[in-house]
Amino acid sequence: MVWNRFFSCFLIGVDGMNKKTRAVDENTFKVIIATMRKGFVMNGVSYKSNDRIATILVLEYNLGLRVGDILQLKVDSFVKDGSRYRLDIYEQKTGKYRNFTVPVEVYSYVRDYAYAQGISPSSRLWIVNTFLDNFFKVIFPILYWCLITK
């Protein structure tokens, strides 16, 4: 896997506390991904492993996209262009068009994930209905836990 970017900043405050942001370094990112893949217990609450969220985070990290843009992806979103792959998207938040090269390892990761989940190349990789709400209910406590116990 290509671990070549700093993960985006996250809001760390909870329940009316002051909100602070902190860039997540590579080691912390790896802890977050491992935590998502194996699950954990925090404050007496069990969080099950969640490979879908781990995969979304890996793609955010490697592609530098927001979660809303990641949730729109299909395997077919990655276009073969000679010996490389590229991604052509309109960012939801900014409306800006982006066209950039995607490392073959990232494309292979997405393709393998879709195959393992039985997702066709023309279908979205994730169901978006209530998934986004659940994503933030799960990921923020995990990030908070990982960062304060470092």
What's the gist of this structure?
With 150 residues, this protein is of the alpha+beta class.
Describe the structure.
- By secondary structure, the protein is of the alpha+beta class.
- It has helices at residues 26-38, 51-63, 67-70, 104-117, 131-148, and strands at 7-11, 21-24, 40-42, 45-47, 78-81, 84-90, 97-102.
- The strands form three sheets. A three-stranded antiparallel beta sheet has the order 5-6-7. A two-stranded antiparallel ribbon has the order 1-2.
- Helix 1 (26-38) packs antiparallel against helix 2 and helix 1 (26-38) packs across helix 5.
Write the layout of secondary structure elements.
Layout: E1 7-11, E2 21-24, H1 26-38, E3 40-42, E4 45-47, H2 51-63, H3 67-70, E5 78-81, E6 84-90, E7 97-102, H4 104-117, H5 131-148
Antiparallel strand pairs: 1-2, 3-4, 5-6, 6-7
Helix pairs in contact: 1-2, 1-5
Structural class: alpha+beta
Distance between the termini: 23 Å
**How is the biggest beta sheet arranged?**
3 strands, antiparallel
Largest sheet, spatial ordering of strands: 5-6-7
Low-confidence blocks of residues: 1-18
The share of residues in helices is 40-55%
Q: What count of helical segments does DSSP give? A: 5
Beta fraction? 15-25%
Average pLDDT for all residues: 78
How many β-strands, per DSSP? 7
SSE succession: EEHEEHHEEEHH
Radius of gyration: 16 Å
Estimate the global geometry from the Cα principal axes: globular
Please give a handful of descriptors for the protein shown.
150 residues; 3-stranded antiparallel sheet; two-stranded antiparallel ribbon; 7 strands; globular
